Amino acid sequence: MTAPGMAGEPDEQTESRGRRFARWLYPRRRAQLWLLLAAPLLWIGLVYLGSLVILLLNAFWAKDAFTGKVAPFDWTLKAFADILTKPVYAIVAGRTVLIAVLVTITDALLAFPIAYYMARIASPRRRGALVVAVLLPLWAAYLVKTFAWRTILQGNGFLSWVLSPFGIPGPGLDELPNAWLVLSYLWLPYMILPIYAGLERIPDSLLEASADLGAKAGTTFRRVILPLAFPAVVAGSIFTFSLSLGDYIVPDLVADAKFIGNLIYDNSALGNLPVAAAYSLFPIVIMLVYLFVARRLGAFESL
Amino acid sequence: MTAPPGTPLAGQPDSDPARRAPAVTLEHLVKRFGEVDAVSGVDLEIRDGEFFSMLGPSGSGKTTTLRMIAGFETPTEGRILLHGKDVTGVPPFDRDVNTVFQDYALFPHMTVGQNVAYGLMVRRTPAAELASRTDDALRMVQLEGYEKRRPAQLSGGQRQRVALARALVNRPRVLLLDEPLGALDLKLREEMQIELKEIQGQVGITFIYVTHDQDEALVMSDRIAVFNRGLIEQVGTPADVYEHPLTTFVASFVGTSNLLSAAAARDILGMDGTFTVRPEKIRIGAPEDSVATDEHSALGRIREVVYLGADTRYIVALDAGGELIVTQQNLQASSMEALAAQGRVVRLIWQRQHVLALKGGTTTSGEAEGAET
Ligand SMILES: Nc1ncnc2c1ncn2[C@@H]1O[C@H](COP(=O)(O)OP(=O)(O)OP(=O)(O)O)[C@@H](O)[C@H]1O
Ligand SMILES: [Mg+2]
Question: Which domain holds residue A179?
Fold first, then answer.
């Protein structure tokens, strides 16, 4: 290929194997893709999806009444029948979804003004400081934050102390609203950041155009800012909703209440794996529906 | 309520132009951004119904001036009057002007129809009137049938038209355009220049047009203001500005700079000061050619020949110092002949009446003050 003796051209002898391989690879798009993705695909395929599939298969397998062990390939719908007939499963599912929805709404309402201030009003320096401030709590361990809330909420804790002069008793650690409060606190950054990014992406000229065409600030907000930022709110809600739906530590520690996760945990601890697996299908289905709707609303372009 | 076809979109202009207040009056307008003087004292009257261009190099304050007229920026000093009414502190949504933005600023989440109807919608125009005016505006920019599309599904030229329709549909008395054709390719630009001019004629609205393209300003405008460093150097018709530039800056920015100053001016013209001759007014002759009494001439050597298709541009180094650029149409000369002229010694000849005295020194001489001719 190369003319012998030509200056600057590497001859066949000295050309490294790496270089030859690179040249072979260059026009082969598919080979490049496989090389890039082989390891992660293997991981996702075997470890991640594989274990998920086995978990779901468990839901359709019977439990050996004598040994209490799961009997693979002994197909039955008994686990589903259990879940549908015992009211506790429906009540806990309803409670979990309700709190997850409330947390999402609360976070959206809190996050929007904060994100708006960060993206469109604050000076660049203050904006940087605020981004750090929003991210900072994420560096603290989840359990530490939850226990901190315990000390705030418990019977003789900070909140009771603050409220005692007014004769109002503190909430204690067995109130369901505690779960709503603490989960809203925990997941707020996950709502602020996508909305902040979404708002920052709106060009100033669109807001100027709106004012130029006769719209006052309120109209511009309703007709331009909100519709353009809405996909970002939905994107944030995917985090707040799914994280709340899957949580089982906060309800246990601050509200003494059971969420879906707690029932799954209890059932698997008792060796009732088919019921645990069947019940875990419920949040998965909810999330799939949620993601489908979110995609329709354009949230994935805002992630 | 809908306008019959052929009616101008703007309110009927007064019959007597002399009694009309200017569409826009700027009184000693100043805008400072911290240390930066973006606009440093602009006085201007823009007449009702005129196509007025603001021409100037990058950073000369054109956009800032336009944004103050629109109401997006508050002047540091000075006043803005629209049709005789002081609007200096009035927010954009209460000003009877509309803007066509350089990046078009179309709302991406709305269809073309919704974009165009936006101004009418926020002003609560009745549905029937809103629909018919939106249709009219889209027809005017030749975009009927595009109502349902999204801005992302349009070409650059089509977006530009939507932006224009969205502004015109409100029937403002003044339309502000900030380099609206800047993002288009040359051919489309030229088509749109003609179209914009036609639309302006139809609707009779005052157009204030910002551009840094001198050809565009010369082609389209009734009058031009030439901006330089936040100040206006000259206001006049295209012919005025081109043929009678008042300052060195205007002469060099509008058209090709062809300056004679200092020694060259004294030697060739016999006058002190800075002068200009337009390249197309100069004739190239042989060194021994005779010169009439109403003509000037200068000896030089052709340093460079640039073949431009229809024209050829010769850059001539003068014996007296400095350079002059000469453009000649290629009536007979082929490219080979034109290019062969390089290095030749020539006599440049032009009529005395085509020499213009300029105010303001050049960067090299600095001392030249305009001699009145
Ligand atoms: N918001 C701002 N903050 C600080 N300086 C600004 C701001 N806007 C404009 N300037 C400065 O003011 C000067 C004039 O800017 P302007 O945008 O009016 O120029 P222009 O004539 O429109 O130029 P161009 O042809 O490049 O658009 C420039 O030096 C610019 O850097
Ligand atoms: Mg500009």
Answer: 80-302
**Contact flag A209-B109 (C-beta cutoff 8 Å):** no
The per-residue pLDDT for range A94-151, each reduced to its tens digit, is 999 999 999 999 999 999 999 999 999 999 999 999 999 999 998 889 899 999 999 8
Say yes or no: A298 contacts chain B, CB-CB below 8 A: no
Structure tokens, B341: 């002229």
Q: Do B119 and A224 touch (CB under 8 A)?
A: no
Distance CA B141, CA B137 (A): 7
ipTM comes to: 0.78
Nearest to B101 among A209, A219, A224 (CB): A209
**Does residue A60 belong to any structural domain of this protein?**
no
Tell me the CB-side half-sphere exposure of residue B312, using CA atoms within 13 A: 21
CATH code for the domain in which residue A297 is found: 1.10.3720.10
Question: Does residue A52 lie in a domain region?
Answer: no
A291 within domain boundaries: yes
In chain A, the number of structural domains is: 1
pLDDT band at A269 (very low <50, low <70, confident <90, very high): confident
In a domain, A148, yes or no: yes
CB-defined contacts A:B, below 8 A: 59
Residues 6+ apart with CB under 8 A from A164: A170
Which one of B39, B64, B226, B249 would you pick to mutate in the ligand 1 pocket, going by the greatest count of ligand atoms within 8 A of its CB? B64
User: Is A85 part of the contact surface with chain B (CB cutoff 8 Å)?
Assistant: no
> Looking at the CA of B37, which ligand is closest?
1
Q: A302 at the B interface (CB within 8 A)? A: no
State how far the Cα of B220 lies from the Cα of B213, in Å rounded to an integer. 11
A144 vs A140: CA distance, rounded Å: 7
Could you give the CA distance from residue B31 to residue B217 in angstroms, rounded to a whole number? 24
